[in-house]
Write a structure and sequence with these properties.
The strands form 3 sheets. The chain has an 8-stranded mixed sheet, sandwiched between helices. A two-stranded antiparallel ribbon has the order 4-5. A two-stranded antiparallel sheet has the order 8-9. The chain has 4 helices and 12 strands. By secondary structure, it is α/β, with parallel strands linked by helices.
Length: about 180
């Protein structure tokens, strides 16, 4: 297997299996740990995400952060385009968006300075394997070109992997928060 696309597909498959096992057992503590990290950035505009399938759930931490400043969720604009972020509130009305993730009914876009990033796998140096669409890589590249933007991966410990098949266009995470630890890079 030398084709990077095949290598990434195999890495994703293995990571999805580890994530599902962790999701099914739902180890406690991750949302509280994410809230602790975000408490150090009160009022800074941030984006979380609406969890789909077996993704770890950031909603409790997002709800807490929304009392201090703007919180958004990603809205896919189309293939090959960066994400935009629409303001989210815990009681705001949502509709179905692309890929099964909910998005706010009313678009109220802003640029976050912190992104809580979903992922399939991460490594010990801030590498991230996503779903393969490149949405977060394009988005982080654009936001980081304008100003410092903190990318926080949110994952189960079981999602850590060695030797992720990464490319030069893959944007690194600044931090990963799991149910047991906070890794900074």
């Amino acid at each position: 297997m030398t084709d990077l696309t095949e290598i990434k597909a195999a890495a994703r498959k293995a990571a999805f299996a580890r994530r599902k096992k962790a999701f099914d057992s739902r180890p406690p503590g991750a949302a509280g740990r994410l809230s602790e990290v975000l408490a150090g950035y009160r009022g800074v505009p941030l984006s979380g995400y609406m969890p789909i399938r077996t993704e770890i759930d950031p909603l409790p931490a997002m709800a807490e952060a929304s009392a201090y400043g703007p919180v958004g969720v990603p809205v896919i604009q189309g293939a090959g385009l960066p994400l935009r972020f629409s303001r989210w509130t815990p009681d705001g009305e949502l509709k179905d968006g692309p890929f099964g993730a909910k998005v706010p009914v009313v678009d109220d876009y802003f640029d976050p300075e912190i992104l809580i990033v979903p992922l399939v796998a991460f490594d010990a140096s801030g590498g991230r394997l996503g779903y393969g669409g490149g949405f977060y890589d394009r988005t982080l590249e654009g936001l980081r070109a304008k100003r410092p933007t903190l990318a926080i991966g949110f994952a189960f410990d079981a999602q850590e992997a060695e030797d992720l098949p990464l490319e030069p266009t893959d944007q690194r995470l600044d931090m990963v928060v799991t149910e047991s630890r906070i890794l900074t890079f």
